[in-house]
Specification:
Length: 127
């Protein structure tokens, strides 16, 4: 019985390790270039607001939204498995805080809705 118990625990430990590895792999962005691009857009978004400069904010938001529209047209909404949690949330922040294009905001919300159910969008970001 001791041997069987040891085998079972060994299998369980291996399964737990495999799940942990799979979880860390899922957290890693499979498109690091897109992730990096979105994070740079987010950084520009933040920099445009320090110090507050309405013209700079408008120009940066316009540039970011134009690029996000290209990304969405080619690849769909940047999901958790595509770019990781941080960049996926940053992409939503760019859209959310750009009130200059409410039609795009509505389109993004519609794209995100089915992705929430598939755990490809953080439900807290979507809400």
């Amino acid at each position: 019985m001791g041997h069987w118990h040891g085998v079972r625990l060994g299998w369980l430990a291996g399964a737990i390790a495999a799940l942990a590895l799979a979880g860390s792999a899922a957290a890693a962005a499979p498109d690091p270039k897109l992730r990096e691009e979105i994070m740079k857009m987010h950084e520009a978004h933040q920099d445009a607001r320090r110090p507050y400069d309405e013209q700079r904010i408008a120009a940066t938001d316009e540039r970011n939204i134009a690029r996000l529209k290209e990304i969405v047209a080619r690849r769909g909404w940047p999901t958790l498995s595509m770019v990781g949690e941080e960049a996926a949330s940053a992409a939503w922040l760019l859209v959310h805080q750009s009130a200059r294009d409410p039609q795009f905001q509505l389109k993004v919300v519609a794209l995100m809705e089915p992705l929430v159910a598939r755990n490809e969008v953080n439900p807290q970001v979507y809400a």
